[in-house]
UniProtKB/TrEMBL annotation:
UniProt cross-references to Gene3D superfamilies, sorted A to Z: Nucleoside Triphosphate Pyrophosphohydrolase, P-loop containing nucleotide triphosphate hydrolases
UniProt feature, compositional bias: Basic and acidic residues: 121-134, 141-151
Keyword set, alphabetical order: Hydrolase, Magnesium
Classification via InterPro entries: Nudix_hydrolase, NUDIX_hydrolase-like_dom_sf, NUDIX_hydrolase_dom, P-loop_NTPase
Coiled coil: none
Pfam families listed in its UniProt record: AAA_33, NUDIX
Boundaries of every Nudix hydrolase domain copy: 206-336
GO molecular function: hydrolase activity
Native organism: Streptomyces venezuelae
Protein name: ATP/GTP-binding protein
Amino acid sequence: MIVWINGAFGAGKTSTARELTGIVPDSVLYDPALIGDALRALLPRKRLDEVADHQDLPSWRRLVVETAAALFAEVGGVLVVPMTLLRQEHRDEIFGALAARRIPVRHVLLAPAETILHERIARREEAGRSDRNGRNGQTDRTGRAADGPDRHLAPYREALDWLTADAYVVDNSTLTPRQTALRIAEAIRTDTAAVCEIVQTPEPTRETVAAGVLLFDAQDRVLLVDPTYKPDWEFPGGVVEAGEPPARAGVREVEEELGVALDRAPGLLVIDWEPPKHPAYGGLRFLFDGGRLPDRAIAALRLPGPELREWRFVTEEEAAGLLPPERYARLHWALRARERGTVLNLESSTPVP
């Protein structure tokens, strides 16, 4: 099990985590900030300059999960993780990958009053300024120079809605780290801090076959969905199960994901060979035409909480800003095939001559 202690810079995550490891039996402190430190030493400066935060590096998010899995294999027990995680898509990617490895996560948010956070951050930055000559200034846990409380608090405020809905919240305004840790330990023992509910999608071990279904509204905008278990938007659909026809898999996934029961088998638009690109294995990708949804079906669309965050009808131009390039190219050619009443054979999202 992982106890992920979240919160703004200055919330007391690390001191609480240290106390918690002395209370929870067989627990080990695992600080992903060390992975950020390693990447800053290993990656070229040009790559580091491309991101504002090391959490934006796909390698950081993947290594956080892989290191957790390696620690479990080595020592087992409970990993206590003090790490600010304010972007929901990053939380979904990391927690989803942990769930796929059957590592449950209990998500805890330390939420002292903002006035207290402001004071703590200001004190840290003042200490950093006074020590600047010896240590080159104060940095936060992302490795960036600290330059004012609001810089840390603004993204925290923006994330509070989803954080408080997702995590077990502890107001530690008047609690010591020891008292905070005792409260968390009791919440774990009584299951008040429940295991985070997120879809478990085992990572493939070889090439996969996946089927997506394009659904349209009366304006011919296409329906996209935002999965919780991976970054970027997607088409409704999923992996084809062993022995299952791809078109039937697409119909099944649409009903499971959105509650839409298609009344006919969807027609094939494109078949695309996605080559392996480490760490992904690639495979065959089918896109089918599910047709226009009537208004009553659109009004009845539902989302399974652990699997999808949102759905949206978009134009082709709008889709370009939501889908990764190869997925958008697949959509582009699927729409051309729909216009022409044909089927296109693609490799790497490019038509085969």
